[in-house]
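Run: sequence + dinuclear copper ion -> complex structure.
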Amino acid sequence: MPYRVSIAVFAALPSSAAAGVQSVLDPKGLHADRVADMGWVMFAGAALIFIGVLAVLAVALYQPPGWRGRLGSRGFVVAAGIGLPIVVLSALLFYAFGTAAQLSRAGMPPAVRIEVSAEMWWWRVRYLDSEDGVLFETANDIRIPAGQPVEFVLKSDNVIHSFWVPNLAGKVDMVPGHVNRLRAQAHEPGRFRGQCAEYCGAQHAKMMFEVQAMAAADFQAWTAAQRLPAREPGDARLLAGKRYFMRACAQCHTIRGTAAAGVQGPDLTHVGSRSSLAAGVLDNNIGSLAGWIAGSQHIKPGNAMPSFNQLSGEGLRAIAQYMESLQ
Ligand code: CUA
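>> structure
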Protein backbone atom coordinates (compact mmCIF):
# COMPACT_ATOMS: atom_id res chain seq x y z
CA MET A 1 0.00 0.00 0.00
CA PRO A 2 1.75 3.20 -1.15
CA TYR A 3 -0.22 5.35 1.33
CA ARG A 4 1.16 3.34 4.26
CA VAL A 5 4.64 4.00 2.88
CA SER A 6 3.81 7.66 2.48
CA ILE A 7 2.72 7.89 6.09
CA ALA A 8 5.97 6.20 7.18
CA VAL A 9 8.02 8.61 5.04
CA PHE A 10 6.08 11.57 6.36
CA ALA A 11 6.45 10.47 9.97
CA ALA A 12 10.23 10.52 9.51
CA LEU A 13 10.19 14.16 8.38
CA PRO A 14 10.22 17.07 10.84
CA SER A 15 6.66 17.48 12.06
CA SER A 16 4.77 20.56 11.02
CA ALA A 17 1.44 22.08 11.95
CA ALA A 18 0.43 21.82 8.29
CA ALA A 19 1.14 18.08 7.97
CA GLY A 20 -1.98 16.19 7.00
CA VAL A 21 -4.06 19.26 6.12
CA GLN A 22 -1.57 20.44 3.50
CA SER A 23 0.09 17.40 2.01
CA VAL A 24 0.14 15.74 -1.41
CA LEU A 25 1.05 12.51 0.39
CA ASP A 26 -2.29 12.46 2.17
CA PRO A 27 -4.84 12.73 -0.67
CA LYS A 28 -8.43 13.40 0.40
CA GLY A 29 -10.04 13.91 -2.99
CA LEU A 30 -10.58 12.26 -6.36
CA HIS A 31 -8.03 14.39 -8.21
CA ALA A 32 -5.44 14.32 -5.43
CA ASP A 33 -5.61 10.48 -5.50
CA ARG A 34 -4.49 10.52 -9.15
CA VAL A 35 -1.74 13.07 -8.42
CA ALA A 36 -0.45 10.96 -5.50
CA ASP A 37 -0.54 7.77 -7.60
CA MET A 38 1.46 9.52 -10.30
CA GLY A 39 3.93 10.79 -7.71
CA TRP A 40 4.51 7.28 -6.40
CA VAL A 41 4.92 5.78 -9.88
CA MET A 42 7.48 8.49 -10.71
CA PHE A 43 9.23 7.93 -7.38
CA ALA A 44 9.37 4.15 -7.91
CA GLY A 45 10.67 4.60 -11.48
CA ALA A 46 13.37 7.00 -10.29
CA ALA A 47 14.31 4.66 -7.41
CA LEU A 48 14.70 1.67 -9.78
CA ILE A 49 16.91 3.66 -12.15
CA PHE A 50 18.98 4.94 -9.22
CA ILE A 51 19.50 1.38 -7.94
CA GLY A 52 20.49 0.28 -11.47
CA VAL A 53 23.03 3.08 -11.78
CA LEU A 54 24.50 2.22 -8.36
CA ALA A 55 24.80 -1.44 -9.42
CA VAL A 56 26.68 -0.47 -12.58
CA LEU A 57 28.89 1.84 -10.51
CA ALA A 58 29.65 -1.01 -8.07
CA VAL A 59 30.59 -3.29 -10.98
CA ALA A 60 32.89 -0.59 -12.38
CA LEU A 61 34.58 -0.04 -9.02
CA TYR A 62 34.91 -3.53 -7.59
CA GLN A 63 34.81 -6.08 -10.41
CA PRO A 64 37.85 -7.34 -12.37
CA PRO A 65 38.98 -5.44 -15.51
CA GLY A 66 37.10 -7.80 -17.87
CA TRP A 67 33.75 -6.61 -16.45
CA ARG A 68 34.78 -2.98 -16.70
CA GLY A 69 35.70 -3.56 -20.33
CA ARG A 70 32.20 -4.84 -21.00
CA LEU A 71 30.70 -1.72 -19.38
CA GLY A 72 32.78 0.43 -21.69
CA SER A 73 31.72 -1.41 -24.85
CA ARG A 74 29.82 0.48 -27.50
CA GLY A 75 26.86 -1.91 -27.26
CA PHE A 76 26.39 -1.32 -23.51
CA VAL A 77 26.80 2.45 -23.78
CA VAL A 78 24.17 2.66 -26.53
CA ALA A 79 21.73 0.29 -24.80
CA ALA A 80 22.03 1.63 -21.24
CA GLY A 81 22.93 5.23 -22.02
CA ILE A 82 20.49 5.97 -24.84
CA GLY A 83 18.06 3.07 -25.36
CA LEU A 84 16.97 2.55 -21.75
CA PRO A 85 16.41 6.26 -20.92
CA ILE A 86 14.34 6.72 -24.10
CA VAL A 87 12.14 3.74 -23.26
CA VAL A 88 11.73 4.52 -19.54
CA LEU A 89 11.28 8.29 -19.86
CA SER A 90 8.84 7.89 -22.77
CA ALA A 91 6.78 5.41 -20.76
CA LEU A 92 6.65 7.76 -17.75
CA LEU A 93 5.89 10.74 -19.99
CA PHE A 94 2.92 9.04 -21.64
CA TYR A 95 1.71 7.81 -18.27
CA ALA A 96 1.85 11.40 -16.95
CA PHE A 97 0.07 12.75 -20.06
CA GLY A 98 -2.62 10.12 -19.59
CA THR A 99 -3.15 11.10 -15.97
CA ALA A 100 -3.22 14.82 -16.83
CA ALA A 101 -5.78 14.19 -19.58
CA GLN A 102 -7.87 12.14 -17.17
CA LEU A 103 -7.78 14.99 -14.62
CA SER A 104 -8.77 17.69 -17.09
CA ARG A 105 -11.63 15.69 -18.59
CA ALA A 106 -14.73 17.47 -17.39
CA GLY A 107 -16.86 14.47 -16.34
CA MET A 108 -20.02 15.29 -14.40
CA PRO A 109 -21.18 18.91 -14.44
CA PRO A 110 -19.93 20.65 -11.28
CA ALA A 111 -22.37 20.91 -8.37
CA VAL A 112 -20.80 24.22 -7.33
CA ARG A 113 -18.77 26.81 -9.23
CA ILE A 114 -16.48 29.11 -7.33
CA GLU A 115 -14.55 31.99 -8.82
CA VAL A 116 -11.33 32.67 -6.94
CA SER A 117 -9.41 35.84 -7.77
CA ALA A 118 -5.91 36.24 -6.40
CA GLU A 119 -5.33 39.63 -4.81
CA MET A 120 -2.11 40.90 -3.24
CA TRP A 121 -2.15 38.98 -0.91
CA TRP A 122 -5.48 37.37 -0.27
CA TRP A 123 -8.19 35.44 -2.09
CA ARG A 124 -11.44 36.97 -3.34
CA VAL A 125 -14.00 34.16 -3.44
CA ARG A 126 -17.27 34.41 -5.38
CA TYR A 127 -19.87 31.69 -5.57
CA LEU A 128 -21.42 31.65 -9.03
CA ASP A 129 -24.80 30.59 -10.35
CA SER A 130 -25.19 28.70 -13.65
CA GLU A 131 -25.11 31.97 -15.66
CA ASP A 132 -21.91 33.22 -13.99
CA GLY A 133 -23.91 35.61 -11.80
CA VAL A 134 -22.43 36.18 -8.34
CA LEU A 135 -24.48 34.61 -5.54
CA PHE A 136 -22.27 36.05 -2.79
CA GLU A 137 -18.69 37.06 -2.14
CA THR A 138 -16.37 36.09 0.69
CA ALA A 139 -12.61 35.92 1.25
CA ASN A 140 -9.98 33.32 2.13
CA ASP A 141 -12.67 30.91 3.28
CA ILE A 142 -13.84 28.35 0.73
CA ARG A 143 -16.47 25.77 1.55
CA ILE A 144 -17.50 22.94 -0.72
CA PRO A 145 -19.94 20.04 -0.48
CA ALA A 146 -18.13 16.75 0.20
CA GLY A 147 -18.56 14.01 -2.41
CA GLN A 148 -19.64 16.41 -5.18
CA PRO A 149 -17.62 17.80 -8.07
CA VAL A 150 -16.63 21.45 -7.70
CA GLU A 151 -15.17 23.76 -10.32
CA PHE A 152 -12.81 26.58 -9.41
CA VAL A 153 -12.62 29.44 -11.91
CA LEU A 154 -9.20 30.95 -11.28
CA LYS A 155 -8.32 34.56 -12.08
CA SER A 156 -5.82 37.29 -11.30
CA ASP A 157 -5.61 40.91 -12.44
CA ASN A 158 -2.26 41.75 -10.86
CA VAL A 159 0.62 39.23 -10.97
CA ILE A 160 0.79 35.45 -11.39
CA HIS A 161 -0.31 33.44 -8.36
CA SER A 162 -0.97 29.73 -8.05
CA PHE A 163 -3.94 28.06 -6.42
CA TRP A 164 -2.99 24.93 -4.53
CA VAL A 165 -4.89 22.72 -2.09
CA PRO A 166 -2.52 19.69 -2.02
CA ASN A 167 -4.98 17.32 -0.32
CA LEU A 168 -7.63 17.93 -2.97
CA ALA A 169 -6.01 18.61 -6.35
CA GLY A 170 -2.94 19.72 -8.24
CA LYS A 171 -1.84 23.34 -8.43
CA VAL A 172 -3.01 25.68 -11.17
CA ASP A 173 -1.57 29.11 -11.98
CA MET A 174 -3.72 32.24 -11.87
CA VAL A 175 -2.53 34.30 -14.80
CA PRO A 176 -3.60 37.92 -15.51
CA GLY A 177 -5.74 38.07 -18.64
CA HIS A 178 -6.47 34.36 -18.65
CA VAL A 179 -9.05 32.19 -16.90
CA ASN A 180 -7.96 28.75 -15.69
CA ARG A 181 -10.26 26.08 -14.35
CA LEU A 182 -9.66 23.38 -11.78
CA ARG A 183 -11.86 20.48 -10.72
CA ALA A 184 -11.86 19.04 -7.21
CA GLN A 185 -13.99 16.58 -5.29
CA ALA A 186 -13.43 15.84 -1.62
CA HIS A 187 -14.23 12.29 -0.49
CA GLU A 188 -15.32 13.22 3.03
CA PRO A 189 -16.01 16.32 5.11
CA GLY A 190 -12.77 17.83 6.37
CA ARG A 191 -10.63 20.94 6.57
CA PHE A 192 -7.74 21.49 4.20
CA ARG A 193 -5.20 24.22 3.86
CA GLY A 194 -4.42 25.98 0.61
CA GLN A 195 -1.42 28.12 -0.17
CA CYS A 196 -0.34 30.38 -2.99
CA ALA A 197 2.31 28.37 -4.83
CA GLU A 198 3.86 31.00 -7.10
CA TYR A 199 6.03 33.81 -5.75
CA CYS A 200 3.91 36.95 -6.01
CA GLY A 201 5.63 39.58 -3.91
CA ALA A 202 6.56 40.43 -0.34
CA GLN A 203 3.71 38.56 1.36
CA HIS A 204 3.56 35.50 -0.90
CA ALA A 205 4.33 33.25 2.07
CA LYS A 206 1.35 34.74 3.97
CA MET A 207 -1.20 34.01 1.28
CA MET A 208 -3.12 31.03 2.61
CA PHE A 209 -6.74 29.96 2.68
CA GLU A 210 -8.88 27.20 4.06
CA VAL A 211 -11.12 24.79 2.18
CA GLN A 212 -13.79 23.14 4.26
CA ALA A 213 -15.58 20.16 2.74
CA MET A 214 -18.99 19.90 4.41
CA ALA A 215 -21.89 17.49 4.45
CA ALA A 216 -24.44 18.56 1.81
CA ALA A 217 -27.01 19.89 4.30
CA ASP A 218 -24.37 21.90 6.22
CA PHE A 219 -23.12 23.34 2.95
CA GLN A 220 -26.64 24.41 1.94
CA ALA A 221 -27.15 26.06 5.31
CA TRP A 222 -23.82 27.86 5.05
CA THR A 223 -24.51 29.23 1.54
CA ALA A 224 -27.99 30.34 2.59
CA ALA A 225 -26.49 32.24 5.55
CA GLN A 226 -23.74 33.78 3.43
CA ARG A 227 -26.26 35.13 0.92
CA LEU A 228 -28.08 37.11 3.60
CA PRO A 229 -27.13 40.74 4.23
CA ALA A 230 -25.23 41.54 7.42
CA ARG A 231 -27.21 41.48 10.62
CA GLU A 232 -28.10 44.84 12.13
CA PRO A 233 -26.23 45.86 15.30
CA GLY A 234 -28.28 44.69 18.26
CA ASP A 235 -27.10 47.21 20.85
CA ALA A 236 -25.52 50.65 21.27
CA ARG A 237 -21.99 49.24 21.55
CA LEU A 238 -22.19 47.49 18.16
CA LEU A 239 -23.98 50.50 16.66
CA ALA A 240 -21.01 52.66 17.69
CA GLY A 241 -18.69 50.11 16.07
CA LYS A 242 -20.69 50.34 12.85
CA ARG A 243 -20.41 54.14 12.89
CA TYR A 244 -16.62 53.96 13.31
CA PHE A 245 -16.49 51.37 10.53
CA MET A 246 -18.43 53.62 8.13
CA ARG A 247 -15.97 56.44 8.75
CA ALA A 248 -12.71 54.46 8.59
CA CYS A 249 -13.28 51.31 6.51
CA ALA A 250 -16.28 51.63 4.17
CA GLN A 251 -14.30 53.09 1.25
CA CYS A 252 -12.46 49.79 0.79
CA HIS A 253 -14.76 47.14 2.22
CA THR A 254 -18.29 46.02 1.49
CA ILE A 255 -20.79 45.00 4.14
CA ARG A 256 -23.92 43.97 2.29
CA GLY A 257 -27.04 45.53 3.80
CA THR A 258 -25.17 48.72 4.80
CA ALA A 259 -23.84 51.75 2.90
CA ALA A 260 -20.33 50.22 2.92
CA ALA A 261 -19.64 49.22 -0.69
CA GLY A 262 -15.87 49.44 -1.22
CA VAL A 263 -14.43 46.74 -3.43
CA GLN A 264 -10.70 47.10 -2.91
CA GLY A 265 -10.54 44.92 0.18
CA PRO A 266 -12.30 41.74 1.23
CA ASP A 267 -16.11 41.70 1.52
CA LEU A 268 -16.73 41.71 5.28
CA THR A 269 -20.46 40.93 5.34
CA HIS A 270 -19.92 37.74 7.36
CA VAL A 271 -16.32 38.24 8.48
CA GLY A 272 -17.12 36.98 11.99
CA SER A 273 -17.90 33.52 10.62
CA ARG A 274 -14.52 33.01 8.96
CA SER A 275 -11.88 30.79 10.45
CA SER A 276 -8.96 33.18 9.96
CA LEU A 277 -7.99 36.77 9.23
CA ALA A 278 -5.51 38.25 6.75
CA ALA A 279 -5.48 35.13 4.49
CA GLY A 280 -4.73 32.50 7.09
CA VAL A 281 -2.24 34.58 9.10
CA LEU A 282 -4.27 35.12 12.30
CA ASP A 283 -6.95 33.18 14.12
CA ASN A 284 -10.23 35.06 13.91
CA ASN A 285 -11.08 36.47 17.33
CA ILE A 286 -11.74 39.87 18.78
CA GLY A 287 -8.14 40.41 19.91
CA SER A 288 -6.59 39.59 16.54
CA LEU A 289 -9.29 41.65 14.77
CA ALA A 290 -8.26 44.71 16.79
CA GLY A 291 -4.57 43.88 16.34
CA TRP A 292 -4.96 43.53 12.58
CA ILE A 293 -6.89 46.80 12.20
CA ALA A 294 -4.36 48.76 14.28
CA GLY A 295 -1.22 47.06 12.97
CA SER A 296 -1.83 45.41 9.61
CA GLN A 297 1.40 46.87 8.21
CA HIS A 298 3.32 45.39 11.12
CA ILE A 299 1.74 41.94 10.65
CA LYS A 300 1.83 41.86 6.84
CA PRO A 301 4.08 44.70 5.60
CA GLY A 302 3.27 46.09 2.17
CA ASN A 303 -0.34 44.91 2.05
CA ALA A 304 -2.92 47.38 0.71
CA MET A 305 -4.50 48.14 4.11
CA PRO A 306 -2.88 50.90 6.18
CA SER A 307 -2.45 50.39 9.92
CA PHE A 308 -5.31 52.29 11.57
CA ASN A 309 -3.21 53.22 14.59
CA GLN A 310 -4.81 56.65 14.91
CA LEU A 311 -8.06 55.13 16.18
CA SER A 312 -8.81 55.56 19.86
CA GLY A 313 -8.75 52.42 21.99
CA GLU A 314 -12.50 52.76 22.34
CA GLY A 315 -13.01 53.11 18.58
CA LEU A 316 -10.77 50.13 17.87
CA ARG A 317 -12.61 47.93 20.36
CA ALA A 318 -15.97 49.03 18.97
CA ILE A 319 -15.01 48.20 15.37
CA ALA A 320 -13.54 44.82 16.40
CA GLN A 321 -16.72 43.95 18.33
CA TYR A 322 -18.86 44.96 15.38
CA MET A 323 -16.72 42.82 13.02
CA GLU A 324 -16.99 39.85 15.35
CA SER A 325 -20.77 40.24 15.46
CA LEU A 326 -21.00 39.85 11.66
CA GLN A 327 -21.54 36.10 11.74
CU1 CUA B 1 0.06 34.89 -4.39
CU2 CUA B 1 2.17 33.85 -4.11
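>> summary
The first helix runs from residue 2 to 12. The radius of gyration is 25 Å.
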